């Protein structure tokens, strides 16, 4: 029996064909980077105050004092959701009384913004917040918009793998690109917040499905030695590039509808990729479509200037067609023993809280001091060295120590923000970026770590369940940001504390570096502190230990 990698080994690892697939699939991820974080600018909340209509007969001094003041970040600023009762101050104005001299403003009756709001145009010309007045009593709709986008991401996570298994990687890849691009374009014509949000859910479904299927397609076409680089540096780095492009678009296009149009157009540029990205030969073999699979490999060999064998895929010797008749597994198998149940609960916590930290830090960029566009760019830029660091650390060092270490780093610097004086805002920004560096590094290591912990029988299910926990974390994350409206430091204190906590819990995981991959529950490593009757699986030479690569879902 020979597996697919042995049969196609004659193609080499890094010829023109592999380089083309690597960069085209990675480039197809760039729109995911700016669509995934576009809500930062589409739903940005500018400074606002109650509108005082010009028709109200007020003197200039009363018009200037028509909004009550409040203390925010140590300075007096106009309230965003209250004004003095216009009928009352109009009478005082008519009588010639002066605010603060003849009238005690602290004793005046207040009212809500009955005539709407006026918004600052310093940062945004228009957003969905200014379009549909998602402020004050309706400010809960802004984080809900983001959370519902991630609900779409969660739903897309469920269906993307199943669709690509049934209809093929290539068709589903371009179909989900069309969903993401098409429904983003339809969003431009939204007439209400409800319409925008429903469409945003569908965009979220297409966004993650495109990401996952490109991930699967690349890992199935590329050789073993290239897959790890593709799944970390390739996909993740190009996502970060899209993330960094977003503030560039938003800086020059400050109207949300035109910005959405600009973010939609790059998706159209992916259409020509249909003629360059082939179907997965592995998937074609699983469907017993050998001729099509051979044609793709023949073209790849020709592109790499290699002479291919006359017969590449022999159905009688392909391992893929004779394996995978495994016994059925159920979600309860992840809780079958005390050891695996503990590892599962700890893994769910690790994924969810790391996801909360990553997305809360990303979504909290508009609340940082300084220029929101520059801060967003830095937030994307810091991910590139984080991915490289994660890749380098995974090659040689124990998993649980490096994941715990970067989590301690990320959580620790976030907790330091509360001791930074308000005048030193650049220090706070630097600490936020360093915190995101740690959390991003940890997040990118979780797939490999989780895949190495679980036995073959339940490995895909375990990664799927823990990935789903991370989507739940992304749904919760906008409400961590929302807490910043009450106290600027509260989100960082919570994120820092939870990140350090999950770092401590990570130390109790078993180590997986240099250990043989478990095939059944009995071969799983034991949680630290557990008594176990059997010794863990023996260490194997690192060169003999197969590299673990598992798709995101």
UniProtKB/TrEMBL annotation:
Interacts with PDZK1. Keywords: ATP-binding, Cell membrane, Glycoprotein, Ion transport, Membrane, Nucleotide-binding, Sodium, Sodium transport, Symport, Transmembrane, Transmembrane helix, Transport. Residues 88-514 form the Major facilitator superfamily (MFS) profile domain. The chain crosses the membrane at residues 20-43, 172-190, 196-217, 229-253, 259-277, 340-360, 372-394, 401-420, 426-449, 461-483, 489-509. It is a multi-pass membrane protein. Belongs to the major facilitator (TC 2.A.1) superfamily. Organic cation transporter (TC 2.A.1.19) family. Its main location: membrane. SUPFAM superfamilies: MFS general substrate transporter (SSF103473). InterPro entries: MFS_dom (IPR020846), MFS_sugar_transport-like (IPR005828), MFS_trans_sf (IPR036259), Orgcat_transp/SVOP (IPR004749), S22A4/5 (IPR045915), Sugar_transporter_CS (IPR005829). NCBIfam families: 2A0119. It comes from the Eukaryota. This is Solute carrier family 22 member 4. The keyword Signal does not apply. It is found in: Apical cell membrane; Basal cell membrane. Pfam families: Sugar_tr. The keyword Repressor does not apply.
């Amino acid at each position: 029996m020979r597996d697919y990698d042995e049969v196609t080994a004659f193609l080499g690892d890094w010829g023109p064909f592999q380089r083309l697939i690597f960069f085209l699939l990675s480039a197809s991820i760039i729109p995911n980077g700016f669509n995934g974080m576009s809500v930062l600018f589409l739903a940005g909340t500018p400074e606002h105050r109650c509108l005082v209509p010009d028709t109200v007969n007020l003197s200039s001094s009363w018009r200037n004092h028509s909004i009550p003041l409040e203390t925010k970040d140590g300075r007096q600023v106009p309230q965003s959701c209250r004004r003095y009762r216009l009928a009352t101050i109009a009478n005082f104005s008519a009588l010639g009384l002066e605010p603060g001299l003849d009238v005690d403003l602290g004793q005046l009756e207040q009212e809500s913004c009955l005539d709407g709001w006026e918004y600052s145009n310093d940062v945004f010309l228009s957003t969905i917040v200014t379009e549909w007045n998602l402020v004050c009593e309706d400010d809960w709709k802004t984080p809900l918009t983001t959370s519902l986008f991630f609900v779409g991401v969660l739903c897309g996570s469920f269906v993307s793998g199943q669709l690509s298994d049934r209809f093929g990687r290539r068709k589903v890849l371009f179909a989900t690109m069309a969903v993401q691009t098409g429904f983003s374009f339809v969003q431009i014509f939204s007439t209400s917040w409800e319409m925008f949000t429903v469409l945003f859910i569908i965009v979220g479904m297409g966004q993650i499905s495109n990401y996952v299927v490109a991930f699967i397609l690349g890992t199935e076409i590329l050789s073993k030695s290239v897959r790890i680089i593709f799944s970390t540096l390739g996909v993740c780095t190009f996502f970060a590039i899209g993330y960094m492009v977003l503030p560039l678009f938003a800086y020059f296009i400050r109207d949300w509808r035109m910005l959405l149009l600009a973010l939609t157009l790059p998706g159209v540029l992916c259409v020509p990729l249909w003629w360059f990205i082939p179907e997965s030969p592995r998937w074609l073999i699983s469907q017993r479509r050998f001729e099509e699979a051979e044609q793709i490999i023949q073209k790849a060999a020709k592109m790499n200037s290699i002479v291919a064998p006359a017969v590449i895929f022999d159905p009688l010797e392909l391992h893929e067609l004779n394996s995978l008749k495994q016994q059925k597994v159920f979600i309860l198998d992840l809780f079958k023993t005390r050891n695996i149940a503990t590892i599962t609960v700890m893994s769910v916590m690790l994924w969810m809280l790391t996801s909360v930290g990553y997305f809360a830090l990303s979504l909290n960029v508009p609340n940082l001091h300084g220029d929101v566009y520059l801060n967003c760019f830095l937030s994307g830029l810091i991910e590139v060295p984080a991915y490289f660091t994660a890749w380098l650390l995974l090659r040689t060092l124990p998993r649980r120590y490096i994941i715990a270490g970067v989590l301690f780093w990320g959580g620790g610097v976030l907790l330091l923000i509360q001791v930074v004086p308000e005048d030193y805002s650049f220090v706070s920004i630097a600490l936020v970026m360093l915190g995101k560096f740690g959390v991003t590094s940890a997040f990118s290591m979780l797939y490999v770590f989780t895949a190495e912990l679980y036995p073959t029988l339940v490995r895909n299910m375990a990664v799927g369940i823990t990935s789903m926990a991370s989507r739940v974390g992304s749904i919760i994350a906008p409400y961590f940001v929302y807490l910043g409206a009450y106290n600027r430091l509260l989100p960082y204190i919570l994120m820092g504390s939870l990140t350090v906590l999950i770092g401590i819990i990570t130390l109790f995981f078993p180590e997986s570096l240099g250990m043989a991959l478990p095939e059944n529950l009995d071969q799983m490593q034991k949680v630290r502190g557990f008594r176990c009757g059997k010794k863990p699986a023996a260490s194997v030479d690192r060169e003999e230990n197969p590299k673990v690569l598992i798709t995101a879902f």
